[in-house]
């Protein structure tokens, strides 16, 4: 159930060490120097552009991924965070993403792919990721990929703004 | 939880039918919350789970299970009891109506009802309860000093 109008629920998932919690904290203006692997989940409620964003960040370790399904309900926006420099695990990353997109409870969610850690040497660029993650195969969801750096904060706002705009035109146009 | 056993004074002049219906429902909720059966159910639930909660920003997965159980027992109980008192009662519609009037209710009731839909409020409730429990169990171990006492005459 929607709490009230103009409230948006965003679920942030991705492999472990992708930078989900760092993105959440950076976006919320918090210190990001002491972040340890998430073993449960974090929630932040942020006011942005007149919307109340309920952001859920769930731990990404393999043993925790079976818990993701407990957080699908009522999700308006899905943020999939990728470590662009972790080339070794991009196949795993692609597989997990495409499994997620088959989930019925996420069928109405807009997908934003954050290509994080773009500033690290050897990081894949957007075109490479788009190809490796098979993003063009996604027909079931509105999606968008944007590079970012959670540490510097670059492009976080742009990504979130795209996500909100897409969700807002879908959900709140009847207002 | 003492907040539910306190007397609740509620004064409001109802103007239209929606208003009357809303305030009648609130009145019924107030009645339910002070019934022994509810207090026992609520107390048992809090006692069963409070030790799982920790004063940490990160949440444990088990909180989500407890939250679901909370909705399936505590919220459901209120919903069912209301169903007996109010014809065609609809909890969702009532909660929607409630959100339009956040300042009209006794804050205890509003807070309680918000714990059914808002996970953060639910977690805060448990952390408050935990603080209360831990505050009540005073640890005397630091207040006692055990030392050997030797009478001089024994030497």
UniProtKB/TrEMBL annotation, chain A:
Keywords: GTP-binding, Lipoprotein, Magnesium, Metal-binding, Myristate, Nucleotide-binding
Matches recorded under CDD domains: Arl2
UniProt-annotated binding residues for Mg(2+): 21, 38
Alphabetical GO biological process terms: establishment of localization in cell; system development; vesicle-mediated transport
GO MF, one example: GTPase activity
Domain of life: Eukaryota
Glycoprotein keyword on record: no
Residues reported to bind GTP: 14-21, 60, 116-119
Listed transmembrane segments: none
Entry-linked PANTHER family: ADP-RIBOSYLATION FACTOR-LIKE PROTEIN 2-RELATED (PTHR45697)
The family this protein is said to belong to: Belongs to the small GTPase superfamily. Arf family.
NCBIfam families: small_GTP
Protein name stated in the entry: ADP-ribosylation factor-like protein 2
Organism: Popillia japonica
TrEMBL record, chain B:
Compartments, as annotated in UniProt: Cytoplasm, Cytoskeleton, Cilium basal body; Cytoplasm, Cytoskeleton, Microtubule organizing center, Centrosome; Cytoplasm; Nucleus
Single Gene Ontology BP annotation: maintenance of protein location in nucleus
UniProt keywords, alphabetically: Cell projection, Cilium, Cytoplasm, Cytoskeleton, Mitochondrion, Nucleus
Pfam families attached to this UniProt entry: ARL2_Bind_BART
Principal cellular location given in the protein's record: cytoplasm
Function noted in UniProt: Plays a role as an effector of the ADP-ribosylation factor-like protein 2, ARL2.
Protein name, entry field: ADP-ribosylation factor-like protein 2-binding protein
Organism from which the protein derives: Popillia japonica
